[in-house]
Structures are given as structure tokens and as C-alpha cells.
């Protein structure tokens, strides 16, 4: 299983790094690239169109400001595209969020929260889990671990009362 992780700029990588690590923990190979919808459009198109040959089945695409990258990726493929708007401007990511979520009918992008890269990795795993019982089990274990972590935090707070 492979997931493309695309970003418009290397400055987006600190936001995406936890998603890359989470993908790896699920056994999903991340294929990471930096490509700009505006400055390297031919590279974007070539990467997206060659994705099936590379074994890529889902895209996680992050960009800030005008954030057209996820939409451009979606225009070149019928594979699932998960957009991650990045907080990169004085608008606190609202510009990126709106340009990612407001896709025209027929060219969908599943949009996560601003800087929501970890949820994008979980969504990618959920997409794989539809047809892969082992991935579904990994997700169930992850959710269980998350629940256990909340209970530990609750116990720590209760101990302080």
C-alpha cells in the first residue's frame, strides 16, 4: 500500500511529518514529493498521472495560501484526494481551508482541518481498510490506544483534585 504525500512547499513538511510517520506505523508506504500547482504544474501532472504505475492508491495533498494543489491533483485523477489546508498566511489558514473545501461538483477533495495532517493519514488508512481486514484491525487497535490514552489523562487530572 502506498499513499502520495504532496506539498506545495518544503515549509509544509513540519505539518505533514506526523502524517508520514503515522502512515508508516500503519504499514502504508508514503511517497513524498514537493510540487507546486503554480510553479511546477507539469511536475504535478506527471506525478499524479504516473501514480497508479507507482502503486499509489490515495493522495494526501497540503498547501497554504490559495491552496490549489489538492484541487489540481483531483482534476488529474479519480483516486481519492485528501486535502490538508496549511496555516501559512495572516488569514490563519482560512484562505487555504476555503479553497480546498470549495471544490466544484464532480471533482471532490476530502478536506481535513487546517494543519490536520494526522487525520489525513488516518483517513488514508480508513480508505485502505475498506478492502483490507489487516488495516481495519490496525485502525481498531489505534482507536483503542487513543481511548486508553484519554483514560490515562483523565486519571492524571483526577489525581490532582
What is the terminal-to-terminal distance? 47 Å
Order of helices and strands: EHEHEHEHEHH
Largest sheet: 5 strands, parallel
Share of helix, binned: 40-55%
- Outline: globular
Please, could you describe this protein's structure?
The chain is an alpha/beta fold and 161 residues long. The protein has one domain (2-131): Rossmann fold (3-Layer(aba) Sandwich), CATH 3.40.50.1970. It is 51% helix and 18% strand. It has helices at residues 13-25, 41-54, 69-75, 94-101, 117-129, 133-159, and strands at 2-7, 29-34, 56-64, 81-86, 110-111. A five-stranded parallel sheet has the order 2-1-3-4-5, with helices on both faces. Helix 3 (69-75) links the parallel strand 3 and strand 4 (81-86). The protein is globular and about 55 Å long. The mean pLDDT is 96.
Quick rundown:
The protein is built from 6 helices and 5 strands, in the order βαβαβαβαβαα. The protein has helices at residues 13-25, 41-54, 69-75, 94-101, 117-129, 133-159, and strands at 2-7, 29-34, 56-64, 81-86, 110-111.
Summarize the helices and strands and which ones pair or pack:
Elements: E1 2-7, H1 13-25, E2 29-34, H2 41-54, E3 56-64, H3 69-75, E4 81-86, H4 94-101, E5 110-111, H5 117-129, H6 133-159
Features:
five-stranded parallel beta sheet, 161 residues, Rossmann fold, globular
Amino acid at each position: 500500500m502506498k499513499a502520495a504525500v504532496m506539498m506545495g512547499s518544503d515549509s509544509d513538511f513540519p505539518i505533514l511529518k506526523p502524517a508520514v510517520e503515522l502512515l508508516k506505523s500503519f504499514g502504508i508506504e508514503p511517497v513524498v514529493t514537493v510540487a507546486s500547482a503554480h510553479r511546477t504544474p507539469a511536475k504535478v501532472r506527471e506525478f499524479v498521472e504516473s501514480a497508479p504505475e507507482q502503486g499509489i492508491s490515495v493522495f494526501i495533498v497540503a498547501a497554504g495560501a490559495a491552496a490549489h494543489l489538492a484541487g489540481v491533483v483531483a482534476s488529474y485523477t479519480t483516486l481519492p484526494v485528501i486535502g490538508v489546508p496549511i496555516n501559512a498566511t495572516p488569514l490563519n489558514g482560512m484562505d487555504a481551508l476555503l479553497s480546498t473545501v470549495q471544490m466544484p461538483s464532480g471533482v471532490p477533495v476530502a478536506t481535513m482541518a487546517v494543519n490536520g495532517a494526522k487525520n489525513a493519514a488516518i483517513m488514508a488508512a480508513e480508505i485502505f481498510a475498506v478492502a483490507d481486514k489487516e488495516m481495519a484491525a490496525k485502525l481498531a487497535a489505534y482507536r483503542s490506544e487513543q481511548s486508553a490514552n484519554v483514560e490515562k489523562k483523565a486519571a492524571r487530572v483526577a489525581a490532582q483534585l
